[in-house]
Amino acid sequence: MLAQKNKYAKIIDQNRELLDPQLSVLEAGSGDAGIARFLNRRVVCLDTSFPDGLNEWVEPKPGSLLEMPFGDQAFDVVVCVDVLHRLEYMERARAIAELIRVARQKIIISCPCGSVATMGERSLVGLFKKFSIGLPAWLAAHAVNGLPEVEDMVEIIINTGYQMSFYGNESINQHYGGILLDQFFEFSQRVHSLTESRSPYESPIMPSSWDMFYSFIFVLRKDSIPSVAPAVKRSPVNRSANAPFEAKVYAVDHVYRSADHLGLVTPIFVGPGADQAPPGTMTDITERTPRLDNRRWCELTAFHKIWSEGPYSDVVGFCHYRRLFDFRTPAGGHRQMNYSKDALFKLTGAFFNEELFRKLPKNALICPPPFRSNTSLWEQYHRACCINDLAHVVGYLTRKHPHLVPFIASSLKEKEVFFANLFVCHWEIFDELCAFLFDVLQDFEKAYPILRASQYQNREIGFLAERLFHIWIRFKQHGGLQLIHYPIAYISDL
Questions:
Q1: CB 225 within 8 Å of CB 397
Q2: At what angle do helices 300-309 and 427-447 cross, to 10 degrees?
Q3: Distance (Å, whole) CA 103 – CA 17
Q4: Beta carbons within 8 Å of 490's beta carbon, 6+ residues apart
Q5: Dihedrals phi, psi of 87, to nearest 5 degrees
Q6: Tens of pLDDT along 228-261?
């Protein structure tokens, strides 16, 4: 019972209209009770068969999820929990299409997915075998078709064309805590029976946004009109046609220090480095626009200062105080070479190449080769940061930047990422990039205004920018953007 309540608690909490008895609700694949037992209201329940002794709120309807016996838009809300992963891969898209067909307003789907959930299931199977307990039918069924990847679910759902949001449902600790308490600790059931009337649908095991998730909730809206994000006011370009060519490459630093080793690269100090810098130094301190919180925005505060207040340059680029472009070798060389700071004084001419910048095509971007990982972009973020952050911005992209939809799921599956703080391009491309990043990330900042518990996780807006930059790069490449790769000189002792 604890495990059942866990998987429905967040669904009800985040979709309170389900409690309204005037709203018609269908649960597809409900079993003998499903969400009805927690809503305490009538729910039409679809399943292949039903046992005797159904919950009083269940209105049973035998049938298949792949061909539901209902007309189009028959229900206000359609719920489907822990079903899709039992279907074959090719059947999942067909099932989602059926859920959408019979829904009038909203479709709520939740299922276990991702490699962490798969590892958890294997461990649970091992535990049952260790204690010579027969595997429950649902657990044995999970191994037949395998759990879907989150990226695959996102791809199927966003390709339906409807507005989408998604977020973690059961955390790993919630899910397996509920199962183990149900199986091995009868006392927990007695305690729960005393509290259930006071909290009919709240999870008996406290959730955590920082845990890794066993299942995710995907919400599609059929009753909302898509609204593209309004065009962001672009930075002013006041430059005469006869003005000489100018290129600027900025090295972003969080600490004020000597920058003699940078050569023609311009240091720009951000956050505490800007606060320490003397007057006349290039910093992220703005005069006409609100200054961004560097603790969260990282190097993006430098982007924002240059983009919103200048100085304008024909070509603009950014690098990092420890990572500089090395233009000594032809494009397409090694990804990174390591140097001591002292060695850089002999190489300062390698970090800025005006001749290269003058010849840079309008529709080209200089960047390092992408950084390669052993896991997908989505999985890497799930293990390192709060995955609901990335889920939030992906949902925002589907609602406000629908032109990016074809590139979202494919980018999340990739095992490489482009660093958002290392590039050189013409101002017009920089302008477009900033308009995109600041629209999406300022929406995120409004949705999550509170600083995180650790200094590292406070940098979440900077982390999200990396993934957004990668998606944007793939979109621009499809439109003809040329990527020109140059290696990085990494300062190992700074």
A1: no
A2: 120
A3: 15
A4: 322, 323, 336, 337, 338, 339
A5: -90, 160
A6: 666 665 655 555 667 789 999 999 999 999 888 8
